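> forwarded from #structure-qc
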């Protein structure tokens, strides 16, 4: 990429409404392949202004590493296609570093990195295993059928992060209930706002307690590091709680569907990387805006224009992944961008991988008779969301 280039040809207009994902279809829409084969990023209009859809693997990586491109939603022209319409208020929470640019972003990221290394996550595996086992015990005790999203895929990531943060067991129900309001699709903006405030108040109190009596948990260690204010610590804890919830849950749900259709992959952890690539559930989360004129894939993007790297399109780029529409855990999928790329690349990726491995491996081992209670075409997905959301997964065993 270089600055100041002229657009060689007029840019095509995106012919379909945004976001593009089709209701009930977990895979990238067919338009992505057309855009990728075209002459470069595709222009579309949102109420927030002009937005460029970027689809090639190389261009997506270039956008996500260019210092002239910002992740700060308060900048003019930042694409607004938020999940609930009410989401931008979260960006005002102190410590919401996914919405910050360097150097401010680096202060948070640096403090948190040691908590999410491969080694650290390896140490967490027994705790994750215990949470997974407890959820399966509860399902077995309740009968021979369940909605796997509600009873397993959603609670596992939230219980893991609350245990990591150091939320006492006695408060887990409170915590889990408020978190559920935040991620439940039927929640109104008002309910969501109330739950956010309740969680932030709770986390503020928890931080005060841990300042007096530190424990062996992430919040206590962040307090000891002394680099973040109490308000920032609450915001960071909220971000960690939300960021890894539905993304991980949907990968677990989709993983179960894939494994039941392809039992030859049961017990093979390579499925995790291919699930991440193939479904790219967080396709539409890495919104950006150009702060200077930049050239991306041969197109001039003007300062103040929005940019949406379509992560699923990059992960189905056939110049990088042969036969991308085939689900093939034997391929080398590690260069996928399902966790983003550059400074904001998912902080929780090692944790997410461990949760997926343990959840899928244990579930299929402990429930060998597991099967879907509805045909796959009838599994409900939420239409038009920026994250792919499986609404329910009825199963029996
Ligand atoms: C399979 C599950 C997950 C997927 C697909 C996913 C995807 C992503 C993506 C695409 C980004 C980049 C956003 C951007 O560039 O604007 C991101 C950032 C982030 N993710 Fe994840 N994520 C997952 C799980 C988790 C988990 C379990 C955590 C919990 C710790 C987490 C915490 C974060 C945080 C804190 C950021 C912001 C990083 C930064 O701005 O420096 N994620 N994630």
């Amino acid at each position: 990429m270089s600055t100041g280039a002229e657009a060689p040809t007029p840019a095509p207009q995106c012919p379909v409404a945004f976001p593009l994902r089709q209701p009930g279809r977990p895979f990238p829409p067919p338009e992505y392949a057309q855009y990728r084969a075209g002459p470069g990023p595709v222009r579309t209009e949102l109420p927030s202004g002009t937005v460029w859809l970027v689809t090639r693997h190389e261009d997506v990586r270039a956008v996500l590493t260019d210092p002239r491109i910002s992740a700060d939603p308060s900048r003019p022209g930042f694409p607004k296609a938020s999940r609930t319409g009410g989401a931008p208020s979260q960006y005002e929470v102190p410590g919401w570093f996914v919405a910050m640019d360097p150097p401010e972003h680096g202060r948070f990221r640096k403090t948190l990195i040691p908590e999410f290394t491969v080694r650290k996550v390896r140490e967490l595996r027994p705790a994750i295993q215990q949470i997974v086992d407890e959820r399966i015990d509860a399902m077995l005790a309740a009968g021979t059928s369940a909605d796997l999203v509600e009873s397993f895929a959603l609670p596992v990531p939230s219980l893991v992060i609350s245990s990591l943060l150091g939320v006492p067991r006695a408060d887990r129900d409170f915590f889990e209930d408020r978190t559920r309001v935040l991620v439940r699709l039927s929640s109104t903006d008002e309910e969501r706002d109330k739950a956010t405030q309740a969680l932030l108040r709770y986390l503020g109190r928890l931080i005060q307690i841990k300042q007096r009596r530190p424990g062996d948990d992430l919040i206590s260690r962040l307090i000891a590091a002394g680099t973040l204010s109490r308000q920032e610590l609450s915001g960071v804890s909220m971000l960690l709680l939300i960021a890894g919830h539905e993304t991980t849950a949907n990968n677990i749900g989709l993983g179960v569907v894939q494994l039941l259709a392809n039992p030859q992959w049961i017990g093979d952890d390579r499925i995790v990387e291919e699930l991440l690539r193939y479904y790219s559930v967080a396709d539409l989360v890495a919104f950006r805006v150009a702060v200077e004129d930049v050239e991306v894939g041969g197109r001039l993007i003007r300062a103040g224009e929005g940019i949406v790297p379509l992560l699923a399109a990059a992960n189905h780029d056939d110049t990088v992944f042969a036969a991308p529409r085939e689900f093939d855990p034997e391929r080398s999928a590690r260069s996928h961008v399902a966790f983003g790329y550059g400074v904001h690349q998912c902080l929780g990726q090692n944790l997410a991988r461990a949760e997926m491995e343990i959840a899928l491996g244990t579930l299929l081992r402990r429930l060998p008779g597991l099967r879907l209670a509805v045909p796959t075409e009838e599994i409900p997905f939420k239409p038009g969301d920026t994250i792919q959301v499986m609404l329910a997964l009825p199963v029996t065993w």
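QC bot note: The domain at 31-396 is CATH 1.10.630.10 (Cytochrome p450). The pocket of protoporphyrin IX containing FE is lined by residues 71, 97-98, 109, 157, 161, 239-240, 243-244, 247-248, 251, 281-282, 285-286, 338-340, 344, 346-348, 351-352 (CB under 6 Å).
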